[in-house]
Structure formats: C-alpha cells, structure tokens
Amino acid sequence: MAWQWFHRLGSPRWFYQKTNVWLPWLALASVVLLSVGTVWGLGFAPEDAKQGNSYRIIFIHVPAAFLALAGYYIMAISGAIGLIWKMKLSFAVMRAAAPIGAVLTFISLFTGAVWGKPTWGTYWVWDARITSMLILLFLYIGVMALSQAVSREQVADKASALLALVGTVNIPIIYKSVDWWFTLHQPATIRLTESSSIDPSMFYPLLTMIIGFYCMYAWTLLTHTRALLLRREVRTQWAQQELAGGK
Amino acid sequence: MSSVDVQPPVSEARTSPGFVALFRIEMLLALRKRADIANPLLFFVTVLALLPLGVGPEPDLLAKMAPGMIWVMALLATMLSQESLFRGDFEDGTLEQLTLLPQPLYFAVLAKSLVHWVATGLPLALLSPLLALMLNLPVEGYLCLFISLFLGTASLSLIGAIGAALTVALRRPGLLLALIVMPLYVPVLIFGTGAVQAAIDGYAYSAQLAILAALLAAAAALAPLAAAGAIRISLDN
Known about the structure:
- The complex is a heterodimer.
- Chain A has seven helices and no strands.
- Chain A is mainly alpha-helical.
- Chain A has one domain.
- In chain A, helix 3 (88-120) runs antiparallel to helix 4 and helix 4 runs antiparallel to helix 5.
- The longest helix of chain A is centred in the N-terminal third of the chain and has 43 residues, at 2-44.
- Chain B is an all-alpha fold.
- Chain B contains nine helices and no strands.
- Chain B is 78% helix and 0% strand.
- Chain B has one domain.
- The chains are: A mainly alpha, B mainly alpha.
- Chain A binds chain B through residues 135, 138-139, 141-142, 145-146, 149-150, 152, 154-155, 158-159, 162-163, 165-167, 169-170, 173-174, 177-178, 180-181, 184, and chain B through 162, 166-167, 169-170, 173, 176, 179-180, 182-184, 186-187, 190-191, 194, 197-198, 215, 222, 226, 229-230, 233-234, 236-237.
C-alpha cells in the first residue's frame, strides 16, 4: 500500500524535477536551430527554378506538417500507455499534446493555403493530403472537445485516450481512402515536390528547421505537461514546494 | 430490460445465447417505439426535399448531386439517431447490469449496434431508391446505391456506437458526438459515394462494394471492442 502511494505520487514529481534540467537546453536548441534555419532558408537558400521565392514557405510548412502527424502518434501512444499502465504522467502528456498538435495542423494547412495561391492559383484544393490533414485537425479537435466536456479529470483522460486510439486506427484508412477518392475523380495534375528530389542547398536548411521544430515541440510539450501536472498535483507537497520556490 | 437473467459466472461463458437474448429484447424495444424508427427516415426525406429548394430543380444538377447528398443525409440520419443508443440503458442502470453479464460486453454492444442498424440503416437503404427517383439519379445507380447503403450504414452504426459510448454520461452530447464521429465516418462515405458514382458512369463498382464490406468486417470486429471499453470508462463517471 505504501509503495503504491509512493509510485502514484512519485512519478509526476520525478518527471517534473527531471525536466527542470532539460528545459533550458531544449529552449536553447530550438531557438538556435529555428533562427539559423529561418535565416538560411528565407535568406540564403537558392530560389526555386519554377516557383521563385514562393517555395520558401516549405521551411515552415513541411516541419509543421511533419509534427502535426508525429504529434498525433505521440498523443495516441501516451494515451495508450496511460490506459494500459494507468500512469498519471502519460495522460498529462496526452492532454498537453492535443492542443499543440491541433495548432501545428492548422499552421500546416494555413501555410499550405498561402503557398497554394501563387503556385496552384487557388487557396484550397481537395487534394488527398490537404483533405486528410483537415480530417486530422477534426480528430484533434474531437479529442480536445471530449476531454473538455467530461467534468471528471480521470474519466476525461481515459475517454480522450480511447478516442485518440480509435483515431490512430483510422488515420491510415482515411489517408488511403482520400488518396483513392482523389485519384478517381481527377487525374494527378498537382503533385507536391517530393523531398527526395530536393536540392541539398534547400534540403539542409529544411532539415535544420525540422530538427528545430522537433526541439520546439518537445519544449512546448514539456512545458504544457509540467503546467498540467502542477495543476493536478497542486495539493501535494512537492507541487506546493515548487510553487513556493518562485519558479 | 429489467428481466435480464444474471447467470452465475461459468468457466466457459456461452456467448451466443446472451447475444440472441439481447438482440431479441432490443429488437422488441425498438419495435415498441415506432417513432424512433420513423424519425430518422422522416429526417432523411425532409432534408432531401430541401435540396431542390436550395439549389434549384434542374434535373441534371440534381442528378449530379444525388449520390453524395443521399449518402451525406443517410450519414446524418444515422448519427443523429445514435445519440440515444445507450442513453436509456445508462439512465435506468441497465448498462451497468450489462457489464456484469458473464458474456463479454462486446456482444451486448454488437447486439445493440445491429438493432440500431435494423431500425435505421436498413430502412434508409430500402427507402433510398425512392429518393434516388425524386433526385433524378440515373437508373444504373439504383442497385449500387441500395447495396452501398446496406453495407455502409451497418459500418456507420458500429462506428457511431464508439462515439455514443464515449458521450453517454454527458448531459447534452449532441454536437460533441457529431464532432467525434464525423471524421471516423469519412472512409465509409468516400467508398459509398465512389461506388454509386462509378455505377452511374458505367464502370465496374464491385471493388468499392468489396472495400465497403471489408470496412464493415473490420468495424464489426473492432468497433464493439472500443465501444465496450468506452462504456466502462463512462460508467466510472
């Protein structure tokens, strides 16, 4: 019994104090990588032969889209860990990941629309990728709405974790079905340039941005999770101490 | 529902008798509440009647929109009726009794989803040729529309059960249920309308129907599991 009490309480506390050390490094890494990547990508990378300067939005668009997808899996996997091992910490990670992922999905959709106007001549195309990203946004919003609607935190955690898992099963099906639907209705006149065919002079700043976005994601996720943990554990001694410590 | 016999747990839980009994009870309940069967159908017809009023009565335009509109309306009718799937049982405590049965909750959810489909999806599919006629759908699409709705609405009932189970403890789940369930409906909608479109255009549509059947098989295997888990979570509330 005593051990169980320790385990339940110990995990968030251990995480909180451990990440105290990581946060400054992650912040530093994301600031450096993002500023280097932005200046390199927007200022120094060569112009695209066909699209001119408008292609430069990929330095934000592609990393955001990467993390919007990866973020969903992070959310769903931590939800699954929470459902299986009943870990408080992983539920907090899941809850923190939902709004971040939704924002990133929105950024990738928005930048895609801005990019689409000069290159495709329209803000919106019902392309397979765009459509599945839009549905991904709805999945994120569904998870967030459900977790807000249920008043008891523990029930909200479990319910939104289950919904996130159901969504995980669906994402590949949705992607494939939308892809199939698109190819049936209109031939592939528009293709996003694949990253494998990208020139190294454009690829390296892009890679810098992607790593920078990953660092920023980790940083934001940790900060969110820590805030959530503090709020949930506010009655415990360690949280009181952290709050009193003037952090 | 109060007369469900709670048998003592046996080592080898018999699944089929429980399933059949539950199916029979649910079916009886559905038949006694005729309005609940009629309402989704009336919704389906009413909203479809609004379409020509909205876009104009040109036959060509209506024919072009018919497969998609019929499918979207069938989807909405299914979803709106799903809100009450577990509600009554939750409020009078039957849902808790069902979780105590020696049979897995999976079969109870499967039985309820199946009854929901018989009460809403099947009538919608049967009614669809009439609406297709009103919307000037080419004759080649009729059979395909019926089969695709027949298969697809069953998947919708099963998938929607997950959303209904997740929101059963909430006071007013209506819009939230839609928000949760809609993205999960996308594949069924795409293949359903795709099949009808292919049939109208004179192509073979058996592939789309096979995929719809595959989605149904997957939904029948997985969705009740997820919904059963969601019921257990909601009952914790």
